[in-house]
What does this fold into?
Amino acid sequence: MSSYLAALIWPAGLAVILGVAFLMTRRLPAAAGAPAIADRVQEPCRATAVAAALPVRVAVAECGRFVVLVLAGAVVVFGAMALLGLLVVYHGLAIDKPVFTWIMHHQVHAVAAILKRLTKIGDTWTAWAAAVTAAVCLSVTWRSRRWLPPVVMATLIFVDHYVTIALRHIFERVGPPTSPLGTYPSGGCDRVIVFYGLIGYLLWREFSRRRTTRIWVAAVVAALGFNEAFSRVYLGLHWFTDALSGLLYGGLLLTAFLLALHLVTGQVPVTRTGRHAASGRLVK
It folds into this structure.
């Protein structure tokens, strides 16, 4: 019985995340009301900006600024994770070993079989394939700054890969007995947050910009992150603290990319109704 209770942590966590998102969207109409004046003023300005194509030299300059800002953010993220690694690597086993032992003794084979499939969403080639697909599709469908999705995704693949390698070379942490190659931080958890979070943001930025959609995008990414972290720990692929560190690592990298986008392209207007901020068409 206790084995099934342990397995119930997985659907319970997903339900909590999606439930919180539902409650947040339910609270929006009463708090928001009519569109703000700033939203109404920014809509025609945004439409004008979209209609005009950026000169090549401006696009190249923006591309260069974005890459520089992301690299600077990656340095900060690397420093933060290196400091956290000193705590996790040298003191994490006090938490990791009891959690690992308890889960291995309460593992349900049917649940493990399902999680073995679901955890592949965080694999390197799966995340990279999703990034390349999103870059190609968005570069065709965007009305302005079509350079942005390919540059963002290419930079993400490069930065995430080499910052993760650098962290692993510094600490060289041995994983649990069932997966000795699992190291600090969990790359699967990191990739789920930063890759799918950035893809979700770019889709939201171009096709919605509604507050309710933003909440649901964040909820889906959080649910994917929870699923990845739980599956990696449940299957014994990573220590518990490595999985948590991977989620934090992915969140920090995602923040660095979003800040760079904000600084290069400006603030994105967020509408409170179903009207698209850029084109004025209704979003269903």
Q: What stands out?
A: Residues 2-27+62-265 form one domain.
